[in-house]
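Methods — Computational structure assignment.
A single polypeptide chain was analysed. Its primary sequence is given first, followed by the predicted tertiary structure written as structure tokens.
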Amino acid sequence: MVAAEFGTGEVLWSILWFSLFVLWIWLVISVFADIFRSPNLSGWGKALWTVAIIILPFLGVFLYLIVNGDKMNERAVQDRQDADRAFKAYAQEAAGSGTSEAEQLAKLAEMHDSGALRDDEYARAKAKVIGG
């Protein structure tokens, strides 16, 4: 039987190599994602890095990490913050402004008194708040 010939050490080695393979695939995908979201690379730069990684995978990935590794995390954090801001804006829009009519009317009156709103603009905004 094949299972009887496959010892514990060989299973551990197989698991180790499989884990390293998965890690390598994750690293390559992360580098490709960073290449394409990088705003400071031109189209030619993106194409050259892509070709370098496809032709010489280990050297290309390691060179990219050496050259642009510090900026990868900054771009990932910025993308995450942008996504969080977009989600918060969407959630506020979907749930409404979150302020009561009285608060909205008070803000409109304050803007009208300060001169930021003309009389006709104030009347339209007030009617919109009261009328729904």
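Note: The mean pLDDT is 85.
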